């Protein structure tokens, strides 16, 4: 059973991925999480900025866990794309990537200073995911420089496909990107590292 504090962090992450950070107020998080009204500033003395930072970190950790559990590069690709497909279907195409949602909102001048720590956390999460994906590719025999490039490409393509799928209310962009990344990766992997079922 999660503590009220943990529930608030998870609720904030879920709300951000559907609405973005700007539209996610502490009152919404309290309502969504069922946490006691007076608890927000007790748990998050840094206010909304602290809560948003922790929600970004939570989301980052969740996907990092999926990356870590994948035993092969192709399995990793399948896992991430399946995760996004399930998320879109379960939320009627409302839920995108909370990290991307935070990053997209970075440019609004009025909020820039207050959001700077949240943006820094989002950047760190993207860097961490890219590094972890590249390490997975390297451990399957892809040359380090190539693995870094492929990891960046995979991240960019995944985030872009997720956005297109949401806008079009259609999983086809995810399916196409999945197929293209899969074939690209398959061509890069040495024999014996491709034992997958596609």
Derived from helix and strand composition plus strand pairing, the structural class reads mainly alpha
**Main beta-sheet strand count, sense and barrel state:** none
Q: What best-fitting shape do the alpha-carbon axes yield?
A: elongated
Order of helices and strands: HHHHHHHHH
**CATH C-level class:** Mainly Alpha
What is the percentage of strand-forming residues?
Answer: under 5%
Number of helices: 9
Strand segment count:
0
Tell me what the CATH architecture is.
Answer: Orthogonal Bundle
Percent helix, as a range, is: over 70%
Mean pLDDT figure? 92
The CATH fourth-level homologous superfamily: Tetracycline Repressor, domain 2
Task: Examine the coordinates and then state which fold CATH places here, giving the name of the CATH topology.
Answer: Tetracycline Repressor, domain 2
Radius of gyration: 18 Å
What is the domain total for the residues? 1
For the termini, the CA-CA separation is: 38 Å
């Amino acid at each position: 059973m999660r503590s009220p504090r943990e529930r608030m962090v998870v609720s904030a992450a879920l709300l951000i991925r559907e609405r973005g950070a700007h539209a996610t107020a502490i009152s919404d998080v309290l309502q969504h999480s069922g946490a006691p009204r007076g608890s927000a500033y007790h748990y998050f003395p840094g206010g909304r900025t602290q809560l948003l930072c922790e929600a970004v970190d939570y989301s980052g950790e969740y996907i990092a866990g999926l990356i870590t559990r994948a035993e092969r590069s192709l399995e990793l690709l399948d896992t991430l794309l399946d995760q996004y497909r399930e998320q879109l279907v379960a939320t009627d195409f409302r839920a995108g990537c909370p990290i991307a949602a935070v990053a997209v909102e970075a440019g609004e001048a009025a909020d820039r200073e207050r959001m700077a720590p949240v943006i820094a956390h989002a950047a760190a999460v993207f860097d961490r995911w890219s590094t972890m994906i590249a390490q997975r590719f390297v451990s399957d025999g892809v040359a380090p420089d190539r693995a870094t490039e492929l990891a960046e490409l995979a991240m960019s393509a995944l985030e872009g496909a997720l956005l297109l799928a949401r806008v079009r209310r259609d999983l086809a962009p995810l399916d196409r990107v999945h197929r293209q990344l899969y074939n690209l990766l398959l061509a890069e992997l040495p024999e014996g590292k491709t034992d997958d079922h596609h």
